[in-house]
Amino acid sequence: MHLKKVISKAGPELIQHGKFNLAKLRHEKDIRVLKDKEVDAIIVEHTSVLQAVLLDSALYLKPLFVQGKTEHNCDGFFDPNQIDRIIGKIEILTKEIEVYQNLALPKDPNKRLITKVIRYLLTRKLNLEPKNTRLAKIGYSYPLIEDFSIEYDPIHILKHLNNYTEEGLFIENTIDKVNVCYECQSSYLNFSECCTKCNSLDLETEELVHHFRCAYVGPQSDFTKAEGMVCPKCDHQLKHIGIDYDKPSEIHNCKSCNHSSQETKMKAKCVDCCKENALEQLTTYSIHNYQVSEKGKAFALEHQEEKSFGTSSSDMENSFTNFGVFNMIKKHEARRIHSNGLSTYHIETGLKKELLSSLNTNLKQALVEELTVIIRPYLKENDLIAIDAQYNIHMLFIDYTTDAYAILLDTLQYNLNKMLRDNAWGEDSIAIEQAINLEE
Amino acid sequence: MSPVLEYILPEYINYWLSAGLPKFVRIFWYFVIFELTRYISLDFCIAAYFKLFEKKRSKEWMLARNKLRAENPLISIIIPGKNEGAHLFKLTKSLAEQTYKHFELIIVDDGSNDDTPTIGKNLEKLGLIHTFLRNEMRGGKASAANLALRFSKGKIVVHLDADCSFDCDAIENIIIPFYMDDKIGAVGGNVKVRNYKDSLCAKLQAIEYLKTVSIGRIITSTLGIYKIISGAFGAFRMDVLDKVGGWDIGPGLDGDITVKIRKSGYKTVFSHTAVCLTNAPSKFKVLTKQRLRWDKSIIRFRVRKHKDVYFPHQGFSWSNFFALFENVFYNVVLDITWWIYITDMILNYSSALDFIVYMNLTLYFCVGFVQMTSIYIFSERRNEELYLWRYLPFMSIYTGIYLRMVRSRAYVDELFFKKSYDDPWNPLKSSRQAKANSF
Ligand SMILES: [Zn+2]
Ligand SMILES: [Zn+2]
Ligand SMILES: [Zn+2]
Questions:
Q1: Which of A107, B82, B356, B426 could form a disulfide with B140 if both were Cys (CB 3.0 to 4.6 A apart)?
Q2: Nearest 10 degrees: CA dihedral of B45, B49, B51, B56?
């Protein structure tokens, strides 16, 4: 067994095993280094790195192993002493992913996500399975999609999965239905019966008793005497159910408003936001597991490049940092101790809602990319730029002085607004939503 | 000329002209003694009395109405029934039109096996019904009424049938009498036939209802011997119902509760302006079944259960005696007497039977018209009812023969076989208890 370790000082540890190149990543940043290297499989030590790999559009399909335990999606666990064990798997997966390797991904974040998920499911021969979890607001999550998403909104995901199923990409199989709070979409609900008239919970439920002999009917308490059950109308003792009496139904008495009714109203109080939902107010979602259909398979193979004006998409794609990776680096930067007088700044720009809602997906993407063209000249080599699902542009300016940063911010704001104004998008269509010094 | 006019008719007239008055009375003793007194003399005396005091009565009425309006008490309208869901929405609409507004509506569904529960629950949700109560197991009409009573909060309880509709002042007019006299414990409404255009059967019942319900009850009420408050439309004082323990096992529980109320010292009166329309059976087969049930209950309750009113005892009351006696007399005794009359005729006048039958029909026919005149005097919708006049000729066969046959059959069944306890109208569990305790 020839095991050759190539230790590079900064970045991933590369392991060559037979014809396969394995990369062991310790840090999210290692992914960037990996970009121009040929790797056949990836090993990660932390789940945070695992997610960064899945988010990466070049690496997401690669055989992925975790050193240690994880609940996340991976192709197996890595033991440095038993590398042979995973080689078989790497061999199979390498073949499986081959067809997708050189296919581009759609620009639209939702479509991009689903393409990645479908390809992953197909290469792993999996169905998309929901997991019952108290941690998810609706009580269910799709761990795979969660790992593939930057921001995971379960309702949003369910809606998209439904749409894609309608398009025929999936065959669904219902496994549960969840009711969620009208206000906050939480499934953590407390159900209780209350008075139909005044909504009070203070109900007393009693059985009705019918005395055959004299046809008196009343709640059980009418009949309760020290010596047993005695009819208030005819004073006879009730001894034998079915012979002397029966219990034809029950009744609820409201202690708050004195209303008697056989009906109660079900109320579902949301534990998360305290809203009292009437049953008909609750939103019901069906939870399915999804199998990729034949159409879904064809979809995964499509060359999904979308036209955008100006720049070619492949150029553009490479020049953006994946937003998930961006966040990780941002977190890392916040913890890093900077040299004297220097700080890292996070700037977020937002387009006006009215402007965004008037554009379709392609146009939104195009506009944002055009804006980044203006921003790009001001970025230094280490600075990052990313776009999130809401088309906000995020920039990370690493190691700037306060003065340099102030000038930069001013210039950016001026240029962006000028561009929008000149192209008739409207004055003040863009705003700096956030500009923070990460050290503070 | 036809032979009828040429020979038979003159012979027929000659026969009766030559017979003379004593023989006429001898042959038609039944008609002269019972029918003539009751329907002719009594009706017109009361009508005269009624007209004579009309001013005084209407003044008292207005006073009572003002008293009622000033107090505006809560009225509980209760409607016990089985499979009545289809009528409920129409009924709530009919009640929404009432001049008297302060009422709660309580519906009891006695083990319906149709979509009544769904309809009822929906109406309750919509707020058209105050309380909808359902017994999963059928308990019989009395228990359903008692259940409604148990959850009634009103000062007066109005008992209705679900398939009735009401004049817009009906509820007000049925509760006004309570404000005329403290001793009044229950008031009966004026039930008329709504579907009289459906069939001959319904038309004849419409006329019969006008005679017995509208006129008959004005008379018994005026005489203070009114004894049957119709379940279709009756009002009861809550405290009085509590005192008598509500309804007992039927059939015939309407009459029964009236007697119970009378026996506990309260008056019962008829309010002829509280008009309620109901659907009568439009087929003779259904009608026969209904009447067999009603007639059996006369034996069961008037003769058997409440027989104490006929004998001197503590709390004996002549008006109660007469109230029940009148009922039993005009139904049971007259029915028996009629058979005696038939036997008498067959034994003694067999040769002239054809003349006698025709003359009897003629007499009943004439009396029918006279009676219709008294109805015309009392009725508040006399012009509509003119329509019915042309069906009067059938009445002598309807009341004279058909109803008598049904009645006789019911009396024999009940007197000798206590058949009413086998009536599926009550659930078996209740009937068994009632029979064992001989209610
Ligand atoms: Zn309440
Ligand atoms: Zn009892
Ligand atoms: Zn909530």
A1: B426
A2: -170
**For range A372-399, the mean pLDDT:** 83
Is the CB of residue B410 less than 8 Å from the CB of residue B331?
no
- Which chain A residue's Cα is nearest to B434? A213
Assess whether pLDDT exceeds 50 at residue B187: yes
Cα–Cα distance measured from residue A314 to residue B208, given in angstroms and rounded to the nearest whole number? 97
- Ligand number with the minimum distance to the CA of A281: 3
Q: Which of A194, A196, A217, A279 to mutate to test the interface with B (most CBs of B within 10 A)?
A: A217
The residues, ordered by sequence, that sit 6+ positions from B190 with a Cβ below 8 Å of its Cβ are B213, B214, B217, B233, B270, B271, B272, B273, B274, B275, B276
- Min Cα–Cα distance to chain A from B71, Å: 23
Q: Identify the three-state secondary structure at position B198.
A: coil
User: How close is the nearest chain B Cα to the Cα of A208, in Å?
Assistant: 9
What lies within 8 Å, CB to CB, of B297 at 6+ separation is B250, B251, B252, B255, B256, B420
Question: In chain A, where are the structural domains located?
Answer: 3-98, 196-263, 313-437
Structure tokens belonging to residue A414: 């001026």
**Average pLDDT of the residues of chain B:** 84
Q: For an interface test with B, which of A214, A247, A259, A265 has the most B Cβ atoms less than 10 Å from its Cβ? A: A214
User: What whole-number percentage of chain A has pLDDT above 70?
Assistant: 92
Tell me which residue of A320, A438, A295, A325 sits closest to A373, measured CA to CA: A320
Residues of A in contact with B249 (CB under 8 A): 212, 214-215
ipTM of the prediction greater than 0.85, yes or no: no
Tell me which H or E stretch contains A387: strand A384-387
A44-69 average pLDDT score: 85
The structural domains of chain B, with segments of one domain joined by +, span 3-40+319-433, 48-282
Mean pLDDT lowest among A37-46, A304-313, B188-197: A304-313
* Peptide linkage before B251 cis (omega within 30 of 0): yes
CA distance A328 to A384: 12
- The CATH code that applies to domain B48-282 is 3.90.550.10
The verdict on domain A3-98 having CATH code 3.30.420 is no
What pLDDT shows up at residue B4? Answer: 62
How distant, in Å, are the alpha carbons of A56, A105, A120, A146 from that of A111? 15, 8, 14, 15
The C-alpha of A249 sits at a distance from chain B's nearest C-alpha, in angstroms, of 5
Joined tokens for residue A386: 């990313």
pLDDT digits (tens, 9 = 90+) for B392-418: 888 888 888 888 888 888 888 887 777
The highest-level CATH class for domain A313-437 is alpha beta
Write down the pLDDT at residue A375.
83
Q: B437 vs A213: CB contact, 8 Å cut-off?
A: yes
Say if A3-98 and A313-437 have the same CATH topology.
Answer: no
The shortest CB-CB distance from B246 to any of A233, A246, A259 is to A233
Q: What distance in angstroms lies between residue A232's CA and the mean position of ligand 2's atoms?
A: 7
Question: Considering the entire predicted model, what is its pTM?
Answer: 0.63
CB contact under 8 A, B139 and A262: no
